[in-house]
Structure formats: structure tokens, C-alpha cells
Write a structure and sequence with these properties.
mainly beta; six-stranded antiparallel barrel; six-stranded antiparallel sheet; about 15% helix
């Protein structure tokens, strides 16, 4: 479980295809503190550390479904990835409950200056079946974009906007996004449970 408060950006140092999986090696300031089997969110995707490497990097493995559902399959050596270690249960929840289970990708369709902050608008493929499962956003609700916990504004059936303050822009890979960029989206788990209860008529 995560909070959507990104610790820093890790840099992709190597990509190795293993049949339908991809092994990603990355470096960050706390690489040497990690342990094998530890969970980390990468652009919002929960992945398990499978190796601690002598060169100060660590390796995680992404399976085919993860690569197809997220933007991890688009990564190249040198790209920066938002990373967060799993949440401590005795700590403050500064963001919202994030599972690290990305639902789908969205594309940035607009960026607008807000006198210091920046509004990003994202569009995703939507249909009635997805909405019935809780894949939607609500005004002032929570959403996770590339692992960052954010507040929704101006939601539609297939898009939403978020406001990014300068600190978030500087310390996450929002600084690399542009119109056309693909991001990972995790919708709020509370909406999914409510949608499931309504579907069951309970």
C-alpha cells in the first residue's frame, strides 16, 4: 500500500527482456537501503525488488500485463520514474490510499499556466462497463497519476484535470510531461468498492 507521495525520481539504467517480461534496473538515492522482495511503486505501479546490484542499482521485473496496462513498456534508459516505498502503517497518510495497481493509461491533451502552478488535462478511453467498475473521477476526488496523489477538477466521462504546484513539478516526472505524454492512472479504490456494491445490489 502507498500514499501517492513520491519520494524522488529514479533513473532507468538498464532494460533487459526476459521472454514476455522486462527487467528494469534503476538508481536512486536509497538504492542501497532496499532489500530483495521489497515493494516499490514505479510511476504508480507496485513492483518487487528482485536484485540489488553491485553498481548501486536495483532491479525489478514487469510482466506482460503490467507492460500493456501501464507506461512502463515505453521506458528507455535514462528516463526518470517516480518512486515511492510502501507506506508505514504508523505514519501519517499525506496523500490517499494507493494500491499500486494501475488501471489504465491516459494521454496529456492540454497544459495551462495558472500563474505559477500548471493545469494538466488527461484523457483516457472510457465506456459504460469501465464506469460501472469504478473507473471514473469525481470533482475534488482523488486520483493517482504516475504514482502522484492528486485532486481532480473538471472531470468528464473520459477526462479530468489536475493542478501541479511548482514543488511537485520539480520533484516528480511531471517536469518531463508534455502534450501527448502517456501516464499511468489509478482510480480511487473507494469508488471501485462502491461501484461493486451497487452492481451487487447490496
Amino acid at each position: 500500500m502507498f500514499s501517492g507521495i513520491v519520494e524522488e525520481m529514479a533513473t532507468v539504467t538498464a532494460l533487459e527482456k526476459d521472454r514476455e517480461n522486462v527487467n528494469l534496473s534503476l538508481s536512486c538515492s536509497f538504492s542501497e537501503e532496499l532489500k530483495i522482495d521489497q515493494s516499490l511503486a514505479h510511476n504508480g505501479v507496485c513492483l518487487t525488488v528482485v536484485a540489488i546490484n553491485p553498481n548501486g542499482t536495483y532491479t525489478v521485473t514487469a510482466m506482460r500485463e503490467t507492460l500493456e496496462r501501464s507506461n512502463l513498456g515505453l521506458l528507455q534508459v535514462g528516463d526518470r520514474v517516480n518512486v515511492e516505498r510502501s507506506m508505514l502503517m504508523n505514519g501519517r497518510l499525506d496523500g490517499h490510499l494507493v494500491q499500486g495497481h494501475v488501471d489504465l493509461t491516459a494521454r496529456c491533451i492540454a497544459m495551462e499556466d495558472a500563474e505559477g502552478s500548471t493545469y494538466f488535462t488527461f484523457e483516457y478511453e472510457a465506456n459504460r462497463e469501465m464506469a460501472s467498475k469504478g473507473y471514473f473521477t469525481v470533482e475534488k476526488g482523488s486520483v493517482t497519476v504516475n504514482g502522484v496523489s492528486l485532486t481532480v477538477c473538471d472531470p468528464t466521462d473520459h477526462s479530468f484535470s489536475v493542478a501541479i504546484i511548482p514543488y511537485t513539478m520539480e520533484h516528480t516526472n511531471f517536469c518531463t510531461l508534455k502534450v501527448g505524454s502517456v501516464v499511468n492512472i489509478e482510480f480511487d479504490i473507494l469508488g471501485k468498492y462502491i461501484a461493486r456494491l451497487m452492481e451487487r445490489g447490496t
